[in-house]
Design brief:
Order of helices and strands: EEEHEHHEEEHHHHHEEEEHHHEHEH
Shape: globular
Distance between the termini: 10 Å
Strand content: 15-25%
Number of strands: 13
């Protein structure tokens, strides 16, 4: 079973997600230039909302970091170990897992659940003497060993039973955001986690043009007779109505969470709530584009996945029939009607839509609910975490 989420969200002038030059991200769609917010940016906002609003207890969340060694040292010093000794042993322990630490950082960002971090620290404590012996033994192949050989030597230096115990803790089964968004560990491919959620890049329903804000700043204690600004520059921005789409494979979510139905249900609820309320943080202090969605449409289905992005192949504009938001809602509603007419809705078990403009609905009018809370609750009640159709590939 799958849950799909479709949102229309009109943002005031903003630069929520920048490229490497500082410009708002964009793309071409339907032959026209559109504003864009990357899926990575949206997922980051969702993960941040989990913690900020206590949607999920911290012990069921993950952290993404290159500073894993520092976090483990903190945990060990809290148990009474000396920081310098803990740092040496942590580097040995991570080396035994195939992870190289250089100047306190791993080679790449790691996405690990809080329970995995605690388990690694616990094993370091339990096998302190064995890891100390490894730390005090000079490397066998010396400084001339290749990076690959040095990593292999570091792994083999750790006693097999300790190495196997360390690798066993990386199951990722108790971290909600890791279960949703997955992970890839280059050095431990068998510890990869397939994401239960797919999140699309948000694109504008309207054609977009970039605008420039020329700004100046004046020194507050500059002599009055001195003319001119002490700082000036430009910031690019735009304003757009975004179509956002995401889906969750409920069977994969349950599998990733170790078969825990209650945690899977809690994770789905938090994902829906955070997707609706979370807003990217780019340039918000200078633009404050805190605009909630104007439409939230959820679909619970046994099979088939439909992005509704093609409702906006022809850019939406304001006209005598409605503004940009109203006409975007009408375009989405009409495209849904056409899809159902062509493909049918046999696999769909529940539809719910909440909007500021119910008068713009036609095909989806029977599915209207008054509040987003009601929409989320309806999805949770309809959700099943078994896989009658065999999962995402069915």
């Amino acid at each position: 079973m799958f849950v799909e989420l479709h949102l229309l969200q009109n943002f005031a002038p903003s630069n929520l997600n920048r490229d490497d030059t500082g410009s708002p991200k964009d793309c071409e769609f339907g032959g026209y230039r559109r504003a864009r917010i990357s899926s990575q940016c949206l997922k980051r906002a969702i993960r941040t909302a989990f913690r900020m609003h206590d949607m999920i207890p911290a012990e069921f969340l993950a952290i993404r970091t290159k500073r894993l060694a520092d976090r483990l040292v903190e945990l060990l010093t809290a148990e009474g170990r000396r920081a310098d000794e803990a740092a040496r042993l942590v580097e040995v322990a991570l080396g035994g897992m195939g992870l190289k630490v250089d100047q306190g950082k791993t080679q790449y960002l790691l996405f690990l659940g809080e329970s995995e971090l605690l388990a690694i620290a616990k094993l370091c404590n339990q096998h302190w003497d064995a890891l100390t012996a490894v730390a005090e033994t000079p490397p066998q192949s010396g400084s001339q060993a290749s990076a690959k050989q040095a990593k292999k030597n570091a792994k083999e230096a750790v006693p097999a039973e300790v190495r196997q115990a360390l690798e066993r803790v990386l199951d990722g089964s108790r971290a909600a955001d890791l279960a949703l968004f997955g992970r890839m560990l280059a050095d431990l491919p068998d510890k990869n986690v397939d994401a239960a959620a797919q999140v699309a890049h948000a694109i504008s329903t309207n054609k977009v043009t970039m605008e420039f804000d020329f700004y100046t700043a004046v020194d507050d204690i500059k002599p009055e007779e001195t003319a001119g600004a002490d700082m000036l520059g430009t910031v690019e921005f735009n304003s757009a109505c975004f179509y956002r789409y995401a889906n969750v494979d409920l069977a994969q979510l349950r599998k990733n969470l170790g078969g825990d139905d209650e945690l899977a249900r809690q994770t789905l609820k938090a994902f829906l709530q955070a997707s609706i309320t979370a807003v990217p943080t780019g340039k918000q202090n200078s633009m404050a584009a805190q605009n909630p969605p104007s439409l939230v449409f959820a679909v619970v289905r046994n099979a088939g996945l439909w992005s509704l992005a093609n409702a906006f192949v022809r850019p939406v504009t304001a006209n005598g029939h409605g503004d940009l938001v109203e006409n975007s809602i009408r375009a989405l509603d009409e495209y849904w009607r056409r899809l159902v007419a062509m493909y049918g809705d046999q696999g769909i078990t529940r539809k719910l839509v909440a909007t500021l403009h119910p008068e713009c609905l036609s095909a989806l009018k029977p599915d209207f609910v008054a509040t987003c809370d009601g929409l989320v609750q309806g999805v949770i009640e309809a959700a099943s975490f078994t896989a009658p159709y065999g999962g995402m590939g069915a």
